[in-house]
Amino acid sequence: MQDTMAVPLDAETKVAERPGDHQAELRLWLRLLTCTNLIETEIRRRLREEFNVTLPRFDLMAQLDKNPSGMTLGELSSRMMVSNGNVTGLVERLLAQGLLDRRPSPNDRRAQLVSLSSDGRRAFRSMARTHENWVAEIFAELGPGEIDDMMRLLAKAKTSTAKAVANRDAAQ
Amino acid sequence: MQDTMAVPLDAETKVAERPGDHQAELRLWLRLLTCTNLIETEIRRRLREEFNVTLPRFDLMAQLDKNPSGMTLGELSSRMMVSNGNVTGLVERLLAQGLLDRRPSPNDRRAQLVSLSSDGRRAFRSMARTHENWVAEIFAELGPGEIDDMMRLLAKAKTSTAKAVANRDAAQ
DNA sequence: TCGAGATATTTTAAGCTTAAAGTATTTTGC
DNA sequence: GCAAAATACTTTAAGCTTAAAATATCTCGA
Predict the structure, then answer these.
(1) Angle at CA B125, nearest 5°, toward B119 and B131?
(2) Partners of A114 in beta bridges
C-alpha cells in the first residue's frame, strides 16, 4: 500500500502529502509557546519589581557586558535579532538613564559605538547575578539529564525551523 | 564533607545554597527563548504575508472558534492570558474588519458577548488549516517519540515554573 | 434596601516592536 | 575619480502590551 511504503520523503513533502492529522505538532507548538511565555512573563515581572528594568534593556546590557570594547547599533541589532529602529530607541532610553556611554566609531562616520557606563556595568552585574538564580529556581525541578535532553530537542527544533524558513524563502 | 552530603533539599533551597554554577539552566533558558522566538517570528511573518492578519488577532479568533456561542471580553482575556485592556483593543480592530459580531450579555449589562461573524468564521477556518500545516512543517524533523519527550519536558518545566512563581508570590 | 466590595470593561500613559521610507556615509566597479 | 550600490542609522506610522486609574454594574450581607 502507498501508505506503508518506505519511500524516502523529505520533511516538506511529508507535510504536503498528509494535510490534516498534525494535532501532535500543533499541541507541541502551543505548549512550547505557553511555557516560554509563562517564564518570560515571570522574569519580566521580577526585573521590573526588583530592578525597575525591562527585559529588552536587560538583554541589550547583557550584549554590551559581553563586549566591553563597545558595539555598533548594527551589531546589537543582529545579535539581539531585532530591527535597527528598535535598537535606536532602546539605546536612547538607556543613555537617558546614564547606563550607557556613546562615542563615534573611529573608522566610520555613519556608525557609533556604545558601551556600558560604569554605572551601567555595576547595575548589570548585580542584576545578572540575581537573574541567574531566578532562572535556576524556575528550572529547579529538571535534573541535569532532563536539561541535556531539552537542549538537544530544542537544537533539533531549531534546525528543523531553519529548514522550514529556507523552504519558504526559496518559494519567494 | 558538606558538599557531598545527600541532604534532601527542596528546589528553592538548592538554588539559594549554591549561587553561581547555574550556567546549564541559563543556557537552557536562552535556547528555549531563542527557539520559540524563531518559530513565532516565522509564523507571524506567514500570517501577515499570506493572510494579512496578526498573531494576536489569529489567537483571539481561535478562541472564538472553539466557543461558537460567544465569549465575554473577560473570558477572552483569561483564556489568552493577556490584560483586559489588550482584549478591548483587539476586539475593536476585529469588529472594524467585520470579522466579529458583538451583542450585549443577556444577564449582565456590564458585559458583552463577542463571536465570529460568518466572514470571520470562514476566514479563520481557512487560515487555521494552513497554519496547522506550517506548524507541521516547522517540526517536521522531530519524530513522534521526540515530540512526546518534548511535551513531557515542557510540562515539567511548566510545573517547575509554577512553583517558582508561587514561591515568589508567597514572599510578597 | 442600602452600602460596601467585587466584577466587567474602558481609558490612559508608557514602552516595545516592526516595516518601510528617508538620510548620511562608505564601498565598489568601471 | 565617480556614479551606483551597499551599509549604518533614524524616522514614521501602526499595532501590541501592560499597569494603573476610572466607570458602570452587580452581588451580598446587615
Answers:
(1) 130
(2) A71, A102
Please state the domain count of chain A: 1
B155 falls within a domain: yes
**Over 60: is that where the pLDDT of B3 sits?**
no
- Work out whether strand B112-116 and strand B100-104 pair parallel, antiparallel, or are unpaired: antiparallel
Is the Cβ–Cβ distance between A157 and B142 less than 8 Å? yes
Distance A85 CA to D13 C1' (A): 13
Name B89's Cβ contacts closer than 8 Å, sequence gap at least 6: none
- Answer yes or no: is B172 within a domain: no
Residue A97 belongs to domain with CATH number: 1.10.10.10
Predicted local distance difference test score (pLDDT) of residue A168: 81
Nearest CA in chain B to A11: B140
Distance in Å from C15's C1' to A94's CA comes to 13
| Residue type for position B5 | M
Is the model's pLDDT at A97 over the cut of 90? yes
Q: What per-residue confidence (pLDDT) applies to A56?
A: 98
* d(CA A108, nearest CA chain B) in Å: 31
CB contacts of A130 in chain B (<8 Å) are none
Bridge-partner residues for B114, per DSSP?
Answer: B71, B102
Tell me: pLDDT of A134 over 50: yes
- For residue B9, being part of any structural domain is answered with no
pLDDT tens across B86-133, in order? Answer: 999 999 999 999 999 999 999 999 999 999 999 999 999 999 999 999
A–B CB contacts, 8 A cutoff, strictly below: 195
| CB of B127 closer than 8 Å to CB of B120 | no
Q: At B19, is the secondary structure helix, strand, or coil?
A: coil
In whole angstroms, what is the distance from residue A103 CA to residue A115 CA? Answer: 9
Question: What residue type is B75 in one-letter code?
Answer: E
Is residue A1, in this structure, part of any structural domain at all? no
Range of the domain at A79: 49-166
